[in-house]
Amino acid sequence: MNAVALIPTASAHTFADPEARLDLLADLSQRLLAAAKARGASQAEVSCSEEAGLNVNVRMGEVETVEATRDRGIAVTVYFGQRKGSASTADLRDESLEATVEQACAIARYTEDDVSAGLADAALMASDLRDFDSWHPWAIDADHAVELALACETAGRDYDARIENSDGASVGTGASLGVYANSHGFVGRERSTQHSFGCAMIAGRGDAMQRDGWYSSALAADDLESAASVGRKAGERTIARLAPRQIATGEYPVLFAAESARSLIGHLLSAISGGALYRQASFLLDSVGTQLFPSWFQIEEQPFLHRGLRSTSFDAEGVATRESAIVSGGVLERYVLGSYSARKLGLQTTANAGGVHNLQVAANAGDFSSMLRDTGRGLLVTELMGQGVNTVTGDYSRGAAGFWIENGQIQYPIDGITIAGNLRKMFAAVEAVGSDVDYRSHVRTGSILVGRMTVAGESADE
Prior knowledge:
Mean pLDDT: 94
CATH topology of the largest domain: PmbA/TldD fold
Protein name: Modulator of DNA gyrase family protein
Strand content: 25-35%
Distance between the termini: 72 Å
Domain Metalloprotease TldD/E C-terminal: 249-457
Strand order of the largest sheet: 3-2-1-4-5-6
Number of strands: 17
Oligomer: single chain
Low-confidence stretches: 1-11
Radius of gyration: 25 Å
Domain Metalloprotease TldD/E N-terminal: 44-108
Largest sheet: 6 strands, antiparallel
Structural class: alpha+beta
Domain Metalloprotease TldD/E central: 136-242
CATH superfamily of the largest domain: PmbA/TldD superfamily
GO molecular function: metallopeptidase activity
Order of helices and strands: HHEEEHHEEEHEHHEEEHEHEEEHEEE
């Protein structure tokens, strides 16, 4: 296949000519599809990806790691009727690529028929392939990255004399290229960048130590918070957690800060994903068309956002994405499906093979200060711990830390508590979504106020 000669080298953490490399990956995908067809495959698909990055970590003023990464992956899936086989490689030598196709075909010949197997329907393939301004390489070398990481950590350590230790600071930059192609004739190309600053501080001594941090992440380096700002915010958050108190076990309003609130949306997505549904492992089976949230609540999928973290014209199967509601008027409008899970359920794909593409949770309230006022008296959750969520039953129980709210204002830090409930009841009890959106995730939501949850804190005999 002469692949090695066609794929040029590039600098450590970027691509010198990304469009040329995408051309080469697209050409490689076509030759792999042709090889699968020559071996008798009735359908085939190929995913080619390349990633490059630079990550540095410092701690207590010293460099801990400087890592340049470069990864490549070629995945081939073939179908012989409704028998499927997949194989992958990172080796672009001709013999390795030939062996990968042969291995995929061999696997397919020995698997059982699966009536749900196969490519997405040809009529659903994307044709309007757009650019979403997601390519912003950062011309930064290791020395400059180390300088920024040290500046970030220094700002955090200098914030308060009680910060005597650090969990370190990091700077990262990465670029990725991808091509998906299948035997319907679809070829989709994508490129994106991602950059970040992160910092975590430790304050206090002995059993009184507390840790917290902050990070900034964006597709373009110009959109990042400054390194010093990230460090100061990490210091501020850490100092705020010193001398935590306990609260009595009881039922209270719980305000999830924006960075914690998106986990609630994540639990919803897990419960309405195709895999959980066709395995009957979800508390939201047969729930499309039912009222899950209050009537004002809305979640929109917006795959075409300018500089959206997961903006795309097509999903992982080449199906054209589209703007649509997941929840409208509090009612669950649809599931989150790829072609395989849709066929298992007797439904149509929702163009979500590979996940969702930018969710916007509509706000019905004001900024963070107004959300505190709306809460009145209750718990602000800024950190969640553990994995105590049962998607089958909807039961929810997680360790948490945050702050006690009294008279609409933060009073003191809280630690060592557990918050519990049932997701179906929690969704119905959502009272407000703030406008304080956290843009560091493809799930864009502000803080979320749940009217009442069980909070296990100090027991009666303590």
